TrEMBL record:
Tagged with keyword Transferase: no
Classification via Gene3D superfamilies: Tetracycline Repressor, domain 2
The name this protein goes by in its record: TetR/AcrR family transcriptional regulator
Keyword Transmembrane among record annotations: no
Gene Ontology terms for molecular function: DNA-binding transcription factor activity; transcription cis-regulatory region binding
DNA-binding region ranges: 32-51
UniProt keyword annotations, A-Z: DNA-binding, Transcription, Transcription regulation
PROSITE patterns the UniProt entry points to: HTH_TETR_2 (PS50977)
Amino acid sequence: MGTRADAVAATRERIARATLRLLLEQPYEDVTLAEIALGAEVSHQTVLNHYESKEGAALAAIELLRAETEGLRTSVRRSDPKHAVEVLVEQYEQFGDLNVRWAMSAERLGRLAVLLDHARAAHRNWLEEVFAARLPAAPAARRRAVNALHAATDVYTWKLLRRDLNLSRPETARTMTALVRGVLDT
């Protein structure tokens, strides 16, 4: 039989997952505490008791997203552009629309906007780790290469290819891989 702490943790996770599901479907501004409660099968007050506000529930949801993203990215074979892009495209297929919506509404997110800065920094760090062996040694050249890799692998690049240009997932991955190889081979 589970403990009270287990029940509390399970409720918190249900609320965070319900919030994430809603954020995947609609802009943050349109998500309500009532919808979160309904999705988590708890009361409005329970959501507030656990997270104090919609913002708190959103922070928990984004933490779930961060953990899932990190889990996907740790599987990448180092210095392998094709595999790295495949993993990114997999991630973007799951969460890319949310990432783009979140970034586009950053000025209205208040304290939540700082999460975008953390995500960008984490992406850059990941690029530097994955492609460390293929990056230039000189600091200025390395910085330029990482900037170009960031542009080639950013969620906005995925959005342009998949959503705006209507490319298939495989064609999107091939295009992004070509961009990454172009940066690394210069």
